[in-house]
Amino acid sequence: MPAVSSVLVVGGGAAGSAAAILLAGSGVAVEVVEARPGGLDAGSGITLQGNALRVLRDLGVWPAVQGAGFAFDSLGIRAPDPAGTLVAEIPDVRTGGPDLPATLGMHRPVLARILLERAADAGAKVRFGTSLTGLRQDPDGVDVELSDGSSGRYDLVVGADGIHSWTRRAIGIDTEPLGTGMGIWRVYVPRPAEVTRTDLTYGGPCYIAGYCPTGEGSVYAYLVEDAQDRSGLTAAEQVAVVRDLAAAYHGPWDAIRESLTDDTHVNYARFESHLVEGDWHRGRVVLAGDAAHSCPPTIAQGAAQALEDAAVLAELLSGGGAGELDELLRRYAERRRERARQVVDASVQLGRWMLERTPREQADVPGLMRRVSALVAVPA
Q: Which of 133, 163, 263, 342 is the most core-located residue (most Cβ within 10 A)?
C-alpha cells in the first residue's frame, strides 16, 4: 500500500512528470501543476545518457522516445582547425544496459510532451499555466494555494520546479545555485547528413563547440564561453554572436552556421550548480530534480539525475506504509545525495579544468568520465 494517497507535483519537467507517472501507476491520486503554458514548445535539444533511457523504459515511454530521437553509441572529438578534423572516435559506455543505446538526443519539448501525456494516461491530472503560490502544512497534510485561484489539500507535495525552485525557498531551504563561470549558447537547426553523433571541439574562441543530433531532421548545437551579461542583446544580435563564435569551427559546423537565420531561436544560459545537503524534505514537502541538485551540462547528466530521483522517490513511496512517510523521505535523500554529489562535482570539475587551462596531463578527463560511467551504470 502506498505511503500517501494524494500528491501534488509542482513542475512538469523530467523529475515531476516521471514521479507523476510512477505514483499514479501505483494508485496514488496525483495532480501536476506546470507554470508553462500547454504548448511546451520552447527549448532546444537534450542529450540523454543510457541511465536516463533505463528510467524512461521503466516509465513505459521508451518506444515513443526512441521514435522521436536519434540514438548513437560513440563520441567524436574534432580539432579547431580549418577542416574540423576528426581526431578521435570514442565508443560510449551503454550505462543503461546492453539493450539500450549509449546516448540519445532529442528535442527537449518533445520529451516533455511525451512524459506529460504518459502521466495523464496513467491517471494524473495535469494543469498548465499554474504555479504554487502558498503552502501550509500540519502533521496530516499540506494545504496549497495556486496561481489560478484554486486551493487544495494533499498528503504530499513534490517540489520539482527547477533550479530556482519556489518550493525550495518556501520550505526554508536556503541553498541556492552558484555560477560556475561559463555560459552556453544553444540553437536548434536542421541536421547536416554527416552529423550522426555528438562531436566536441575543445579550443578556439570557445571552451567547447558541440552538437547532438535530435532527430532525422534536426540537431542542436552549442558553444560554451566565459559567463557574461548577454541580456541586452536583441534576437538578431544573439544570432550574430553565435555566427561569430561558430566561425572558428568547421566540418559539420559549416552547414550548421549556414543554416542560421535572423529568426533562429537562440538560448543563452549560465552554468550553475548546487546540492541540498541533509534531508531533501521538510515535513510533507519534498524536493526532486533540479530543485534538489543541479549541474552544468558538461557530462550530460542533468535529466538523468532528475529521472533517477523520481524513480527512487516513487519506489519508496509506493512500497511504504502509513506512518512511515518521514523515514521514507529521509531514505530517499540518503540514497540519492551522494550519487548526485559525485555527478555535480564531476560536472563542475570538468568545467574548472577548462577555465583554469589545466594542462592535459594534470586534467584526468578520461578517468573522470570512466568513474561517472561506472557510477551511473548501476541503477540508482
A: 163
